[in-house]
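Late entry, evening session. Most of the bench is empty. Finally got around to the prediction I had been postponing all week. Sequence below, unchanged from the version circulated by S.P.
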Amino acid sequence: MGLMGGDGWGWGMGGLQMVLFWGVIIVALVLAVKWIASSNAGSRGSTALETLKERYARGEIDKDEFEQRKRDLGG
């Protein structure tokens, strides 16, 4: 009936290991979501530039507007 045995406390080492296990799982999921979100954020800029190029090619915008918007996008 010691502190490590779990008989008196209801936790024991198994309970601590379970909490640590789920803590690691949750942290890993949070990091994965952040990584996916940041990798998608980088692709949005290229998509916007591609859309701008398509609009210019279709004649929807003139060269001056194309160049200005391209600078605004950082391209």
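Two things to note before I forget:
Residues 8 and 59 are 78 Å apart (CA to CA).
Residues 24-73 form one domain.
Will write this up properly tomorrow.
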